[in-house]
Amino acid sequence: MMGGYGVMGQGGWWLGWIFMILMWVLVAGGVAAVLKYLFSSGGNSRGAARPSALEVLAERYARGEIDKAEFEQKRKDLQG
Q1: Which residues contact 7 (CB under 8 A, 6 or more apart)?
Q2: In this predicted structure, what is the pLDDT of residue 1?
Q3: Residues 7, 15: Cα–Cα separation, whole Å
Q4: Angle at the Cα of 53 (from 50 to 55), degrees rounded to 5?
Q5: How far apart, in Å, are the Cα atoms of 47 and each of 39, 44, 51, 69?
Q6: Which of 1, 12, 26, 36 is the most exposed place for a label (fewest CB within 10 A)?
Q7: Do the beta carbons of residue 57 and residue 75 sit within 8 Å?
Q8: What is the pLDDT of residues 3-42, one digit of tens each?
Q9: How far apart are CA 74 and CA 80, in angstroms?
Q10: Running DSSP on this structure, what letter comes out for residue 64?
Q11: Residues 6+ apart with CB under 8 A from 16
């Protein structure tokens, strides 16, 4: 017979403490993850300036991805 102590028995009270500590660790980890996401500079693109199309084109030309004729034509197209 169980003697009225249920499934956990006489010494099972520590199981509740383990689950409570685990819950608080998960809550603290979640809060830390949200704060890191909000305040990290890598994931925050709100204040980051994006290069213009002409700057990207000039970078591609400097890396040798496009030749001078293609660069000049695309620059004319971008400038209107």
Answers
A1: none
A2: 46
A3: 11
A4: 80
A5: 12, 7, 13, 35
A6: 1
A7: yes
A8: 555 555 566 777 888 999 999 999 999 999 999 988 886 5
A9: 10
A10: T
A11: 8
Taking only the tens place, the pLDDT of each residue in 40-76 is 865 545 556 788 999 999 999 999 999 999 999 999 9
Structure tokens given for 13: 């009270």
pLDDT score, position 71:
94
DSSP 2: -
SS (H, E, C) 5-68: CCCCCCCCHHHHHHHHHHHHHHHHHHHHHHHHHHHCCCCCCCCCCCCCHHHHHHHHHHHCCCCH
Amino acid (1-letter code) at residue 38: L
Residue 28, amino acid: A
Q: The tokens of 20 are what?
A: 């409570």
Indicate the domain borders of the chain: 13-39+50-79
